[in-house]
Every structure is written in C-alpha cells, then in structure tokens.
Design brief:
Layout (H helix, E strand, L loop, with lengths): L2 H22 L6 E5 L2 E4 H17 L4 E4 L10 E9 L1 H5 L6 E8 L2 E9 L4 E6 L4 E3 L2 E2 L12 E4 L7 H13 L3 E3 L4 H9 L5 E7 L1 H4 L3 H6 L3 E2 L7 H4 L1 E6 L4 H8 L5
Parallel strand pairs: 3-4, 10-11, 10-12
Antiparallel strand pairs: 1-2, 4-5, 5-6, 6-7, 7-8, 8-9, 12-14, 13-14
Length: about 260
C-alpha cells in the first residue's frame, strides 16, 4: 500500500477497535435520538474526536468534516468522516456498522475507506490504485440479468415515505431482490465487493458516502454525480451500480450515472 493508504488503514482500524470495545462491553451503548430514527451514542463523538486528532497529527493543516462535529469544507484537502455509519444497528446490538473516511483533494476523491470491525473487513481504495478488501483486489459483480440482481435501497427521514416505497417498488417489479441493512457506507462497499449489484437512496449525506464511492469506481462500477454543487454540505441522491447493470439501474431509478 502507499503511505497514504497505510495511514488511512491504521486510523480506521484503531477507530474500529474503539467501536468494537464499546459494542461488546457488558454495559451496552446508551443512545439518544437527534431526530426521528436518528440515533446518537457517546461512541460516535469519541470515535470522531479520535479520528480528528489522528488526522491532525499525521496531516496537520488538513480540514476535517464530521457528522457529529461539523467543520470547514475550505481548503485543498478535506477529510470527511462518519464515525459510526449504522448507529441504529450499533445501538441495538446488530453487528452491521462501520467507520467511513474519505479524502478529497481539490474537489475530487483521492482515497476512501470503510472499516467494519465486527468482521474485521477493511474496504479501501486510492485513485488509480484499485480497490481492496483485506488485501484482495475487489471487482464489482458480473451479474448481467436484472432478475438475478440484489439492490439495497436506503431510507432517509429527509424524504417522503412515498418516495422510498416507489423506489423499492420499482426494483421489486423489475425482479430485483431488495434489501435494506441500515448502513449506506457498507451497502456501497458491498457494491464494490460484488456482493450486491446496486445501491440507491433518494438523499444521503456526504459523510455516508465519502469512504465508499471511490471503492466502486476503482472496482469497475459506476456512480452518480454525488459531488455536484452542494453535495458536500447538503447531501444528494446516490446511485451506485455494477458496470454490467448500469444502464438498467439508471433507467429504473432515473438517476444518471457518470
């Protein structure tokens, strides 16, 4: 791995150890709600602070944007972190959650990683260096029949329920197997790893995707233009697909792929 990927590897694995320790502790994580179905635990803040300090130590002067602590988006280099993506799963003792960390340089993703500590899975990519899962190169799925595909459709309280149900209905009527596992970052990483063929969500935040989108393109997949104006600050729709089904997924969800 390059020096940058090695640094990211070390940061997210160490952060993952903090999450795993809290998850497996005898006293289960207490949680509060920031809004409807918007979970928060003390571990979210602790992990984000850990990552901020690690970045400041290794890359002084770089900007950091986090889900919990916010931050400036100015500067040539911007790290975007979601300390626990899948907090509802984490709080409810469902072992499907991760840390997502992405690095943007001059408005484009330079590197990204998603680490899932319960199964010790590190999904990582650097532009031009391929995408890797625990040292093995990833490739998106080669499934070419939509009736054999699996699609994850993410849900958000920021969109009408009818919009979400319409997306699920489109996929189901097309013959897809439809799932929702509660972590957009992991859903996107699973597209890169060829475990599912597509991930779609009508609105998602930048910290949920910054670690994942480069994984997909480096693994041969396609993604929508999430980084269109306002994407970092306000979020955008997202569609990610394997190359073989990109046309079908784009037509089904109506989200252009680039």
């Amino acid at each position: 791995m390059t020096e940058l990927m090695t640094a990211i590897d070390e940061i997210v694995r160490a952060a993952g150890a903090v999450m795993r320790s809290a998850f497996t502790a005898p006293d289960k994580p207490a949680y509060s709600l920031k809004g409807r179905q918007d979970y928060l635990t003390a571990t979210d803040g602790a992990v984000e602070q850990f990552v901020r300090e690690a970045i400041e130590k290794r890359f002084p002067g770089d900007a950091v944007l986090g889900e919990e602590g916010g931050g400036s988006v100015d500067g040539k280099r911007l790290w975007i972190v979601d300390p626990i993506d899948g907090t509802a799963n984490f709080a409810r003792q469902i072992p499907h959650y991760c840390i997502s960390l992405g690095l943007m340089e001059n408005g484009a993703l330079r590197a990204g990683a998603v680490y899932e500590p319960m199964h010790d899975e590190l999904f990582i990519a650097e532009r031009g260096q391929g995408a890797w899962l625990n040292g093995q190169r990833m490739q998106v799925s080669s499934v070419s029949e939509i009736t054999a595909s699996t699609v994850e459709v993410g849900w958000s309280t920021r969109i009408p329920v009818a919009t979400y149900l319409d997306m699920v209905g489109r996929a189901a009527h097309a013959g897809c197997s439809v799932r929702r596992a509660g972590s957009g970052a992991l859903g996107l990483a699973y597209v890169a790893a060829g475990r599912i063929e597509a991930y779609a969500e009508a609105h998602i935040n930048s910290w949920d995707v910054a670690g994942s989108l480069l994984l997909i393109t480096e693994a041969g997949g396609r993604v929508s233009d999430f980084w269109a104006p306002g994407g970092i600050e306000n979020g955008n729709p997202i569609l990610a697909s394997s190359g073989a089904l990109a046309g079908a997924m784009q037509a089904m969800f109506g989200t252009p792929l680039v």
